[in-house]
Amino acid sequence: MQGTIVKGIGGFYYVDTGQRLYECKARGLFRKEGIIPCVGDFVEMDPLSESEGYIVRILPRKNVFIRPPLANVDCLVLVAAVTKPKPNYAVLNKFLVMGELHNTEIVICLTKIDQGGEKEAAKLKDLYGGIYPVVSVSGETGQGLEDLRALLKGKRSALAGSSGVGKSTLLNKLQEEVVAETGEISAKSQRGRHTTRHVELFPLPGGGMIFDTPGFTSFDILEAEAEELASCYPEMEAYIGSCRYDDCCHLAEPGCKVREAVEAGRIHPGRYEAYKEQMQEIRNRKKYG
User: Is the peptide bond between 68 and the residue preceding it cis, with omega within 30 degrees of 0?
Assistant: First the structure.
């Protein structure tokens, strides 16, 4: 019998077969092979009763994330508030690289647009709008939610972003029922508190599903390697392989087509600066790691 893991908590995995929900344990062979079942996994299970069973096989994955543990994500929704807190561009750029490395579609969602922040919103749209879909929403007024729902329809999506940007509020609004407790923002730190304790996968009205997670781990280390970083910038891909040197890092080498594209205005200089900062971070990691 096949199904999808829709919740994992306390060593139990809840598998939805479409007709029934089973509380399952995973066979010991997964531990021996170093495989951890994840919410979002397509699995084969052996039922023991009408409500319990054992997971016996994990079907091939499209992708898998470790922290939090989830699999088969179609779309990563990067959530950034235009105010309170202001966008953390370094974190946002790392999330973008993570989404590209995991072969997900990416949507950038700007929240709290009813609270001002017009200049920040314009900056974000200028920086990312020519590359990824950017949608502006308000969890309070509902503005823009239909546009976001249209982008997520038929996909398995996960929300990612810094604390306090309104992910739980957005998750609540996207569904017919409230499933996430909205966290308050500390007045002192202007950062929200994570309120979700485990990963769970919920259906969306109109089709598709959405992961409710405790939040993706903050990035102290960029996941990409130097040789793959440029391919994580879609606007650079057209120029990869056409530089004078085959091993061009697109930094200071002569005959670099990426830098020529930046100078010609075909690549946003802000995006190129982000690339250079990340490349330096990778080099520092190798030097001191």
Answer: yes
Q: What whole-number distance in Å separates Cα of residue 30 and Cα of residue 37?
A: 8
Alpha helix segments (H runs only) across 36-139: 89-101, 118-128
Which residue type sits at 141? T
Q: Taking each helix axis as running N to C, give the angle between helix 145-152 and helix 167-174, from 0 to 180 degrees, rounded to the nearest 10.
A: 80
Task: Show Cβ contacts of residue 22 under 8 Å, excluding neighbours closer than 6 positions.
Answer: 3, 14, 15, 45, 47, 51, 52, 53
What pLDDT, in 10s, does the model give residues 142-176? 899 999 999 999 999 999 988 888 888 888 888 86
| CA distance from start to end of the chain | 46
Q: From CA 159, how far away is CA 70, in angstroms rounded?
A: 12
| Predicted model pTM | 0.89
3-state SS assignment for residue 3: strand
Q: How far apart, in whole angstroms, are the C-alpha atoms of residue 269 and residue 238?
A: 16
